[in-house]
Amino acid sequence: MASKNRKLMRVFDAFLRALALVLVVLSIIFMVEGQSQTGWLLLLLSILLFITTVPRPPPPIEPVFSVSTEVICEGCGHKYVRPFKKGDYVFKEVEECPRCKKPMIITAIFRKPTKEELS
Ligand SMILES: [Zn+2]
To answer: 85: CA distance to ligand 1 center in Å?
Structure first.
């Protein structure tokens, strides 16, 4: 839907630029025929049209990553992976192990590869 809109905008921009070119030609004709005020006005209008239709680069697509945190117990090696929480860092002590009650530490923070990266 968004790409269709962008395509439509490009066609519209091309039309406006063509219109600006026509206005430049018209302004020259008006100036040659002595109606310089109308000529300058049309020239100004065509410049404005050119400026507003300068091709803009498309906005960058921001990939959405799911970041995970790996937590391991130092005592028994119990390990689990949970979604990343703000404030997580490697070697941070997070909670006590549900098995042996020793402190668990974060050993890795990683993002899962996207579908494109896997294929
Ligand atoms: Zn443990």
So the answer is: 21
